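Hello Y.,

Per our agreement to keep a running log of every chain we model this quarter, I'm adding this entry. I've kept the format consistent with earlier entries: sequence first, then predicted structure.
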Amino acid sequence: MLYLIDELKRNNIDISLNGDDLDLSFDSSEIDVNLLKEVKQHKKELIDFLKKYASLTVKHDIVPIATSSSYALSNAQRRLWFASQMEEGSVAYNIPDSMVLDGTYDIDCFQKAIHAVIDRHEILRTIFKIEETTGEVRQYV
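Predicted structure for the entry above:
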């Protein structure tokens, strides 16, 4: 079964269980006829295989932490902050980019889209600063 699952992966096709049936997810408009024929031919074995090994797949839901006025830095964030302090505000980790947009655009919609992304991702609204009372670097959203 692994060879067939590998072949599906090579063709950017995800296979999963849907109760006692299979779900195939893919981006292209169609699946290779021979590959689909092979999936149908081995459907029972694929279902049995996925049922047997599905319990080995570890799925971790991201659990939000409690709301706070500030948060501790991860080790990676602490390293980046420290490096930026040592190099007097180095921009080594900034990746500037620009894009020229030709055409007519609805600027209000564009601004709403940008603000929606900022609202959705806290890291885009986060700053690091030294807490005055403890001297610890914390992140503030």
